[in-house]
């Protein structure tokens, strides 16, 4: 077995607010191998971005990692001093954001923003850095990179800007690339371009990737394995084929059914998950999904299910329905959390 | 249209079953917007402090005749006397009880500050909203008028208006009110321009609402924040402005006291260095009321910010 | 860009025209008249009549306005009613000191306001924030004359650091250092007054920017927080801050009256007050005209600065 | 198309069968680009450049296409939020541009619009009850009491409860807000509703709820929809016919099944192929990925506007703009039958 | 050290502090006291009055008359213009003619109104350019004749001490109508006084330089600066040593609230002097018709309190236009002491309507006067009279005063030491805002003006003062003293109410410490 690149263990992240704190990510655990792509899906507000920002340690002044650890090649990022962490950001771990329109600083040129990072981490001279930036732009398929490098972001279309973001993210050869909804803001045809580019890049650089999306299509297209999140928790983890073929968690099942497939018959009703996602300050007791779950048991309303593998496979699920197929090898840990 | 009782199988069911718990919670806290604002506001510690202080000042102004220990005009034997038992804050340069004057002055200064700002905020808001909403020629004309007003010989206009109308508290308020609107108009225009593009305004038009209804009921309530900020600053400037008007004999007329003219009267090195009781109290009052208004404004703005309510 | 400027200038013409008409009538409507202010107690009726005639005050007001306008077009502001100097010279000799004072005051204001604004924005709702807010209100709550006298008392009288007023040491060596020592106190007084207001602007515009996505990008690159705030955020926050230069410059022209007086600084503010109190119409008109031009051009300049600070804005 | 609207024709016997509810003729909307000293108009963004289509009572016409191709502009022109530059919109045969302000205001009760963003389409400072009752009161269709009663009923209809009436928009989730937006559009009992991407901003699980709701309401109230979207999945589910737009023009219009089964225009093919299918087994499938961005609508390419990105473009495409042709299934392409790989 | 940082002038430079900025240096057309004050450093008057009616020669070696009608002025034979040309009688005659020329804008025209051959306004008839009664006897001798015999003191004070002559050889080419605007008056470069003009920086300072060829001897000071500053700064600059003294005389007054502070400074000494200036309250006699009411209102005023408290004792209460400096003050007048009870009684007796509100109109610009208005209105209120105070700037006040748009009006005056005061009390007087008209007074005023014998004049003015007390059209509130501070560095020289410029050549300062 290869060395694990990233290991996130029982991550819990919270934000301070006037009422005390709000736990945005309750329990996230996963591992990522070099070159592997993990997809995270889930509804808006379920904590996908917070998870990725926790890895980057970019939670802002009010957010903090409450529990758990994040090990990058064995180094725990959760407790790393800020100055060390800065050396990792943009260098070992890079990130692409959802909104290419607003993720670039409008008052600096593309080159300026790229060079800043290259100079910082690769210790090149400005001139070399610029050359390098141009070559990176070329790699992500930007036409006329020599000219574009001196342009301001507003001159570029959304797709182009996302390419710039990718070029920027890759410029320091990161070990891990985090892409938080990289195509949500883009059109279908442009989305296809970007996804294609990301695949190509991944093959070329063998970068481990964390791709976050609520579009199951994108996940199906890109991920090797998938985390399904609901209300701050990972509710299911499986490799991509297993997940799409045999979803276990009622939420995942509901999700799968409610997507209007192209091959879907027009005259049958769409299935949908009733109700809405509970808000952070009104989390139901027990299983967080129980209020919307068609299969909810009595136990679901009071006891919180653990995330456990089914039949010792790599397929993990957090649901009492599968209690008998799971055995709890992590009982100790669960106690702590409860 | 006969509204039939449509059965929304999936959803209706869900709301009975799934959302039941949500519903109860939510119905329990069915609150009016005002209450929500009030609650938010009361959480803002400084805002509450501001409210308390400002209310005290208002009370002081309203009940001045009952609170003031002496008449604010009667002249004692000691001029510019330091604080003593007889005169808690001392006497001014004409031998009047400073504490009493300070208390009475709050009536004048607050009326000037609040009155003038109220007037120009209304004017500026209406003009700015009209310019922003209707655009084109209306915008062009209003903005040019704003330019003209902004490049006006301020002092001269005040001089003329006041001398035509006579320098009285009311007229000062009116004049300051008539001249202060251009910045507000610009701010409101800017906000309206951006809010006008929002979908809920378009929805209003699509629903066939008339222009005044859209402007006053839908657009303006949503650009309160910048107006509020400007107004709190405006109150301070109006209070100070009144004082500087007395330089030209156009301020509040003697022997009436305002915080501004109490400060102006103390314009002397001797007073500054050795008679601090003449200037610290009015200065403090201005600062205190302006600060309390500002903190209240901050609190109110935060409380009314829909984002903060989410 | 050039076209844009030309267009703006063309739009400014009717505005200027409006301002001159309004101010001419306002000035003439002001009670009192210039002739009386120029005669001493023993003046005879003939002297008064002659003066009135000489000043053209017997003509109908619109005739006077047209005459004024004609002269203006020829670049002539006329003669001061009180000193009999050409108004152009009268204003000219005060323009430099005014600009000097204004410029320094603005500079000081920015030097004070920007760092304080940054601190209070990045530490929003902390005690530092509340403290700076209170100080900024102190800045606008203290009348300038008071701040001025206080500054004189402390810096000139107690510590003898600077002279109490004037623009140069009389009979002294002159030169930059000398002028600077006279300039610093009034500029400081004026500057802190403006800074009070400005801190709030800097704070709020920075707060607005601090929530933007691109700052997260900058942090994700591994940049230091200092650079994130002072390079990436501040540069964007500058744009709204520029607006207030446009608001402040006109205020400074008129608003420096008191400061100029207390520090005997020979600026336009003093001239304004004097002209008002002697009803010196030509000088007042010229001052109004210049004020209007300043307002309009500072608006234009801020708009141009906008496009310099923000590459997204391009004027055509 | 008649299979679908049969039911409606029976219900609305007073209406001529097959006469369109909305007829759009040569609709053009140009936004001026201003320049120069006196802001002379030096050019136009041809946001919508000559659309012709009809929507029949009770049917749903979907409008799909990339961002900026003019979908919203078309929608807003139809409800006259932003009147067209040229051409006409006929509502039940009445030319809307010929109406006076007050006539138009009355006409607005007949057609409504639902916006994409549930967060910006509700006034944050108005209670839900007021939001819903206001239109009735403004049009004097009901007195206050009745209006609020109707608002309550409407809330129930869209699957909320009347107890929500005194709450504010911020207290609702996106899906709930979209329901409120739908309720607001419905309360005036309109015949036509323009849905401008009503589900794009919603979560997957909520999307389905809203789509189902829209469909149910259509059945119940014989509504006619113009459904704007860029997600093909939702469109497939809700629409009877689909119009595919590219750069301000309709490039293909046909019944939904036809579009999906037998797309003619290469752009439609590209769209279908680019749509990410939530099935990992289909990962390796052949996909057409066109290069480049949508051209600037201020300066659209000559000839066929898609030729710059079209994988099968020929010389003729660069010179001659194809016209929309075909019976029932219309496409604007010189080579509608060429396969693409 | 004190002063070391403040001025760079060394021991031959003096700094005077003044509040009112001079307007211009047009000797025949300057409207204000500050301008005249500066002009007199550069231009000599014929005479200098160094005490009440005590005249000493200056530019004139002698200023004589035998019949009180024909006056002969002999100019100092050594007197020279600063360009070396001698000062001649031609220069004087030229100046007389110019002032009398109806085309010349002037503010000193009234000084000539008594000259024979001129109209009542002191102007030449149309077409004339020379005053027939003014004769150039020889290079240094000028003779003129008045319409009738007059008190020579009056002529000496007006023409002698206030009338400054111009260099004919410099200005003769200037057309009369352009004279006022001539740049000579902005930068007078040919002068005849002890100091010459260097520079006037507006609102900052006037710089003067010793005239080495001055006929009265070269001044000991080399440079003289008159600095202009707001009154509160006088004390500060005296303290820092940036000033050697304030100029006093109404244009450089230290604010009374600073008196104590200044007295305590150890680098200056102080002095005070009575003046002829006085502050008044005018009654609009058309609105307050009853003289008894006006008297009653005066009884209600606690003027002594104003002097004691506001002026810190540096002032006096007088009842008429003549202060204790004036030889014409009738010391036997019984005066009006503060008596609120009496005031009330008198008002009642006069049938005063106690519901009526009097408009007290106050010009701004004089802090003490504004403060005194507060005391006055309190005093009147105590007597049961309702008062509403309104303040205006000066031009507005002039308009309101002229239009009679007031009930009570505060105003200050400084006339001449000569008792002639028609402009205030005569029914046609320019400052008779009271609309006071008493034929007896008009007659007596005329008589007083044309009576050459000082003793007889005194009788006339005593009678007038009695009538005025009876009629009470205007009451003098107080006359404030000149309170001056002089740096201890000054070896010779101090501000003076009379004859400020008299021995200016001898003024000197010790070097900086
Ligand atoms: N800076 C913050 N302060 C307080 N709460 C936050 C902050 N950032 C996120 N949250 C909360 O944390 C929860 C998870 O947010 P997150 O952004 O991770 O959701 P997401 O899954 O990325 O959703 P989306 O699909 O909308 O991006 C949300 O309830 C959000 O309100
Ligand atoms: N008010 C306007 N002024 C100028 N141009 C406009 C205006 N509104 C829209 N446009 C332009 O018209 C074109 C069509 O815009 P429209 O909003 O209709 O696109 P859309 O198809 O709805 O796109 P999206 O999917 O992003 O909503 C775009 O190029 C847009 O930039
Ligand atoms: Mg997210
Ligand atoms: Mg759109
Ligand atoms: Ni079918």
Quick recap:
Chain C: InterPro entries: BPD_transp_1_N, MetI-like, MetI-like_sf. Chain A is an alpha/beta fold. Chain A is built from 13 helices and twelve strands.
Structural overview:
Chain B has 310 residues and is an all-alpha fold. Helix content of chain B is 72%, strand content 0%. Chain B contains 17 helices and no strands. The longest helix of chain B has 37 residues, at 98-134. Chain D has eleven helices and eleven strands. The longest helix of chain D has 18 residues, at 204-221. In chain D, helix 7 links the parallel strand 7 and strand 8. Chain D has one domain (22-121, 190-331): Rossmann fold (3-Layer(aba) Sandwich). In chain D, strands 6-7-8-3-9-10-11 form a seven-stranded mixed beta sheet, sandwiched between helices. Chain E is 27% helix and 21% strand. Chain E is built from 14 helices and 21 strands. Chains in contact: A-B, A-C, A-D, B-C, B-D, B-E, C-D, C-E. One magnesium ion (MG) is lined by residues 48-49, 180-181 of chain A.
Spell out the key features of this protein.
heteropentamer; C: 316 residues; mainly alpha; MetI-like fold; 77% helix; 0% strand; D: 341 residues; alpha/beta; Rossmann fold; 7-stranded mixed sheet; 4-stranded antiparallel sheet; 11 helices; 11 strands; globular; binds adenosine-5'-triphosphate; binds magnesium ion; binds nickel (II) ion; transmembrane helix (chain B); transport (chain B); cell membrane (chain B); transmembrane (chain B)
Q: Report strand order across the widest sheet of chain A.
A: 6-7-8-3-9-10-12-11
CATH superfamily of chain B: MetI-like
What is the CATH topology classification name of chain B?
MetI-like fold
Q: How many beta-strand segments of chain A?
A: 12
Shape of chain A: globular
What is the rounded Rg of chain B? 25 Å
Question: Structurally, how many domains make up the residues of chain B?
Answer: 1
Oligomer: heteropentamer
Strand content of chain A: 15-25%
What percentage of amino acids of chain B are in beta strands?
under 5%
Q: Return the CATH architecture of chain B.
A: Orthogonal Bundle
The helix-strand sequence of chain B is HHHHHHHHHHHHHHHHH
Helix segment tally of chain B: 17
Please tell me how large the radius of gyration of chain A is.
21 Å
Helix and strand composition category of chain B? mainly alpha
Q: Which pair of protein chains has the largest interface, and what are the residue counts? A: C-E, 55 and 72 residues
Organism (chain D): Falsibacillus pallidus
Family (chain D): Belongs to the ABC transporter superfamily.
Keywords (chain D): ATP-binding, Nucleotide-binding, Transport
Pfam family, one (chain D): ABC_tran
């Amino acid at each position: 077995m290869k060395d694990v690149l990233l290991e996130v263990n029982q991550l819990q992240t919270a934000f301070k607010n006037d009422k005390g704190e709000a736990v945005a990510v309750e329990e996230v655990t996963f591992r990522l191998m070099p070159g592997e792509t993990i997809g995270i899906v889930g509804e808006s507000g379920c904590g996908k971005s917070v998870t990725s920002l926790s890895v980057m340690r970019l939670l802002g002044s009010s957010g903090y990692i409450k529990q758990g650890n994040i090990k990058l090649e064995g180094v725990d990022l959760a407790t790393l001093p800020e100055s060390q962490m800065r050396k990792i950001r943009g260098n070992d771990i890079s990130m692409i954001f959802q909104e290419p329109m607003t993720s670039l600083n409008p008052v600096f040129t593309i080159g300026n923003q790229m060079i800043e990072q290259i100079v910082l981490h690769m210790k090149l001279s400005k001139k070399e850095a610029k050359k390098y930036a141009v070559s990176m732009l070329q790699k992500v398929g930007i036409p006329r990179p020599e000219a574009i490098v001196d342009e301001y972001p507003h001159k570029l279309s959304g797709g182009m800007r996302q390419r710039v973001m990718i070029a920027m993210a890759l410029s320091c050869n990161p070990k891990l690339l985090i892409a938080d909804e990289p195509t949500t803001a883009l059109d279908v045809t442009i989305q296809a371009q970007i996804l294609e580019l990301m695949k190509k890049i991944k093959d070329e650089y063998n970068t481990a990737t964390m791709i976050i999306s609520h579009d199951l299509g994108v996940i199906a297209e890109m991920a090797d394995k998938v985390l399904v999140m609901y209300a701050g928790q990972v509710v299911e983890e499986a490799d991509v084929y297993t997940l799409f073929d045999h979803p276990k968690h009622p939420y995942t099942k509901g999700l799968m059914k409610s997507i209007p497939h192209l091959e879907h018959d027009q005259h049958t009703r769409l299935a949908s998950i009733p109700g809405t996602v509970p808000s952070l300050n009104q989390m139901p007791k027990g299983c967080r999904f129980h209020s919307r779950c068609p299969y909810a048991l009595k136990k679901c309303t009071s006891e919180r299910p653990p995330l456990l593998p089914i039949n010792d496979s790599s397929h993990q699920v957090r649901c009492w329905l599968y209690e008998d197929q799971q055995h709890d090898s992590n009982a100790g840990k669960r106690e702590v959390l409860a | 249209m006969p509204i039939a009782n449509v059965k929304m199988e999936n959803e209706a069911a869900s709301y009975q079953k799934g959302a039941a718990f949500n519903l109860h919670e939510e119905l329990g806290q069915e609150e009016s917007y005002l209450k929500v604002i009030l609650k938010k506001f009361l959480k803002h510690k400084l805002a509450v402090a501001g409210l308390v202080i400002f209310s005290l000042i208002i009370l002081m102004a309203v009940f001045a005749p009952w609170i003031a220990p002496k008449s604010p005009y009667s002249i004692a034997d000691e001029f510019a006397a330091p604080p003593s038992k007889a005169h808690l804050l001392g006497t001014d340069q004409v031998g009047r009880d400073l504490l009493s004057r300070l208390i009475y002055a709050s009536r004048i200064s607050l009326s000037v500050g609040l009155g003038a700002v109220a007037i120009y905020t209304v004017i500026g808001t209406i003009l700015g909203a009209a310019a922003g909403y209707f655009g084109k020629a209306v915008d062009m004309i209003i903005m040019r008028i704003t330019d003209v007003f902004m490049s006006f010989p301020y002092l001269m206009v005040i001089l003329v208006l006041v001398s035509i109308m006579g320098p009285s508290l009311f007229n000062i308020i009116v004049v300051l009110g008539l001249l202060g609107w251009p910045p507000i108009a610009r701010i409101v225009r800017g906000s309206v321009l951006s809010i006008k593009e929002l979908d809920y305004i378009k929805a209003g038009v699509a629903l066939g609402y008339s222009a005044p209804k859209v402007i006053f009921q839908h657009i303006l309530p949503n650009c309160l924040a910048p107006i509020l900020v400007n107004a709190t600053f405006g109150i301070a400037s109006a209070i100070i402005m009144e004082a500087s008007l007395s330089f030209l004999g156009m301020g509040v007329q003697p022997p009436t006291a305002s915080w501004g003219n109490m400060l102006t009267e103390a314009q002397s090195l001797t007073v500054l260095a050795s008679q601090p009781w003449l200037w610290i109290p009015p200065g403090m009052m201005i600062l205190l009321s302006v600060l309390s208004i500002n903190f209240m404004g901050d609190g109110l703005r935060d409380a009314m910010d829909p984002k903060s309510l989410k | 860009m050039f076209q844009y400027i030309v267009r703006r200038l063309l739009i400014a013409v009717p505005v200027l025209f409006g301002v001159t008409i309004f101010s001419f009538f306002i000035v003439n409507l002001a009670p009192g008249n210039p002739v009386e202010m120029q005669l001493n107690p023993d003046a005879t009726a003939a002297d008064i009549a002659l003066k009135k005639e000489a000043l053209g005050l017997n003509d109908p007001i619109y005739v006077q306005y047209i005459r004024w306008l004609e002269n203006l077009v020829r670049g002539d502001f006329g003669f001061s009613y009180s000193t009999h100097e050409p108004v152009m010279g009268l204003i000219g000799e005060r323009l430099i000191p005014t600009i000097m004072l204004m410029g320094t005051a603005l500079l000081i204001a920015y030097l004070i306001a920007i760092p304080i604004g940054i601190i209070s924005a990045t530490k929003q709702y902390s005690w530092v924030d509340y403290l700076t807010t209170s100080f900024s209100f102190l800045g606008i709550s203290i009348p300038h004359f008071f701040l001025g006298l206080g500054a004189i008392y402390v810096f000139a009288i107690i510590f003898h650091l600077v002279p109490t007023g004037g623009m140069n040491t009389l009979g002294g060596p002159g030169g930059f250092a000398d002028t600077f020592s006279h300039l610093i106190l009034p500029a400081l007084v004026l500057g802190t007054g403006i800074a009070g207001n400005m801190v709030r602007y800097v704070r709020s515009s920075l707060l607005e920017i601090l929530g933007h996505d691109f700052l997260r990008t900058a942090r994700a690159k591994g940049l230091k927080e200092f650079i994130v705030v002072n390079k990436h955020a501040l540069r964007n926050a500058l744009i709204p801050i520029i607006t207030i230069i446009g608001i402040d410059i006109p205020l400074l022209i008129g608003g420096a009256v008191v400061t100029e007086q207390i520090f005997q600084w020979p600026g336009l503010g003093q001239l304004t007050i004097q002209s008002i109190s002697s009803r010196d119409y030509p000088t007042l008109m010229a001052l109004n005209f210049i004020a209007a031009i300043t307002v309009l051009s500072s608006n234009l300049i801020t708009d141009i600065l906008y496009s310099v600070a923000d590459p997204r804005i391009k004027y055509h | 198309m008649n299979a679908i609207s049969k039911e409606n024709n029976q219900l609305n016997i007073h209406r001529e069968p097959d006469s369109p509810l909305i007829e759009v003729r040569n609709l053009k909307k140009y936004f001026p680009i201003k320049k120069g000293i006196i802001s002379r108009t030096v050019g136009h963004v041809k946001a919508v450049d000559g659309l012709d289509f009809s929507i029949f009572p009770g049917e749903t016409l979907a409008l799909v296409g990339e961002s900026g191709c003019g979908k919203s502009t078309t929608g807003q022109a139809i409800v006259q939020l932003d009147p067209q530059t040229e051409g006409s919109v006929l509502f039940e045969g009445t030319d809307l541009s010929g109406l006076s302000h007050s006539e138009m205001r009355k006409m607005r009760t007949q057609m409504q619009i639902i916006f994409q963003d549930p967060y910006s389409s509700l006034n944050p400072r108005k209670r839900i009850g007021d939001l819903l009752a206001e239109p009735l009161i403004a049009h004097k269709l009901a007195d206050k009491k009745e209006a609020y009663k109707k608002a309550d009923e409407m809330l129930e209809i869209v699957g909320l409860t009347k107890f929500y009436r005194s709450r504010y928009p911020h207290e609702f989730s996106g899906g709930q807000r979209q329901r409120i937006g739908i309720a607001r559009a419905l309360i005036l009992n309109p015949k036509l509703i323009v849905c401008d991407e009503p589900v794009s901003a919603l979560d997957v699980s909520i999307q389905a709820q809203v789509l189902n709701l829209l469909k149910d309401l259509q059945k119940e109230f014989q509504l006619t929809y113009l459904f704007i979207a860029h997600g093909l999945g939702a469109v497939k589910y809700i629409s009877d016919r689909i119009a595919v737009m590219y750069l301000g023009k309709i490039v293909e219009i046909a019944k939904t099944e036809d579009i999906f089964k037998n797309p003619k225009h290469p752009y439609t093919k590209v769209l279908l192929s680019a749509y990410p299918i939530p099935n990992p087994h289909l990962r390796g499938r052949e996909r057409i990925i066109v290069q480049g961005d949508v051209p600037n609508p201020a300066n659209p390419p000559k000839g066929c506007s898609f030729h710059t990105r079209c994988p099968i473009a020929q010389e003729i495409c660069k010179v001659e703009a194809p016209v929309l042709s075909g019976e029932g299934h219309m496409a604007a392409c010189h080579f509608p039958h060429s396969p693409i790989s | 050290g004190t002063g070391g940082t403040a001025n760079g002038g060394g021991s031959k430079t003096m700094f005077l502090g003044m509040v009112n900025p001079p307007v211009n240096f047009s000797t025949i057309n300057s409207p204000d006291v500050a301008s005249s004050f500066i002009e007199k450093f550069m231009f000599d008057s014929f005479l200098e009055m160094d005490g009440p009616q005590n005249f000493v020669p200056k530019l004139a070696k002698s200023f004589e008359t035998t019949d009180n009608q024909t006056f002969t002025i002999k100019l100092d034979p050594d007197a020279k213009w600063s360009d070396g040309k001698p000062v001649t009688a031609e220069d004087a005659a030229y100046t007389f003619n110019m002032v009398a020329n109806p085309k010349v804008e002037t503010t000193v025209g009234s000084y000539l109104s008594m000259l024979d051959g001129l109209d009542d306004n002191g102007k030449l008839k149309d077409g004339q350019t020379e005053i027939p009664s003014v004769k150039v006897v020889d290079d240094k001798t000028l003779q003129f004749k008045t319409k009738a015999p007059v008190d020579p003191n009056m002529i000496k004070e007006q023409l002698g001490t206030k009338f400054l002559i111009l260099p004919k050889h410099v200005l003769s080419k200037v057309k009369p109508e352009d004279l006022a605007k001539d740049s000579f008056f902005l930068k007078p470069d040919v002068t005849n006084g002890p100091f010459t003009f260097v520079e006037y920086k507006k609102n900052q300072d006037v710089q003067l330089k010793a005239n080495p060829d001055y006929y009265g001897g070269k001044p000991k000071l080399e440079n003289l600066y008159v600095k202009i500053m707001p009154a509160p700064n006088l004390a500060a600059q005296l303290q820092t040593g940036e000033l050697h003294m304030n100029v006093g005389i109404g244009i450089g007054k230290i604010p009374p609230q600073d008196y104590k502070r200044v007295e305590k400074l150890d680098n200056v000494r102080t002095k005070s002097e009575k003046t002829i200036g006085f502050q008044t309250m005018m009654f609009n006699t058309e609105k307050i018709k009853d003289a008894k009411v006006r008297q009653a209102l005066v009884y209600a005023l606690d003027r002594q309190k104003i002097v004691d408290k506001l002026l810190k004792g540096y002032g006096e209460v007088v009842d008429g236009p003549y202060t204790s400096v004036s030889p014409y003050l009738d010391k036997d007048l019984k005066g009006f002491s503060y008596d609120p009870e009496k005031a009330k009684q008198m008002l009642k007796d006069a049938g005063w309507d106690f519901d009526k509100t009097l408009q007290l109109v106050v010009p701004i610009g004089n802090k003490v006067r504004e403060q005194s208005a507060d005391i006055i209105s309190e005093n009147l209120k105590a007597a049961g009279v309702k008062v509403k105070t309104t303040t205006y700037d000066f031009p507005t006040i002039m308009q309101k005063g002229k239009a009679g748009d007031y009930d009570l009006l505060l105003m200050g005056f400084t006339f001449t030491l000569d008792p002639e005061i028609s402009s205030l009390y005569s029914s046609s007087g320019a400052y008779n805002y009271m609309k006071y008209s008493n034929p007896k007074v008009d007659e007596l005023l005329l008589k007083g003006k044309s009576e050459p014998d000082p003793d007889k004049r005194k009788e006339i003015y005593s009678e007038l003062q009695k009538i005025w007390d009876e009629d009470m059209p205007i009451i003098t509130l107080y006359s404030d003293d000149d309170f001056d501070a002089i740096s201890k560095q000054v070896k010779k020289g101090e501000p003076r109410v009379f004859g400020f410029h008299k021995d200016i050549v001898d003024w000197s300062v010790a070097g900086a410490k």
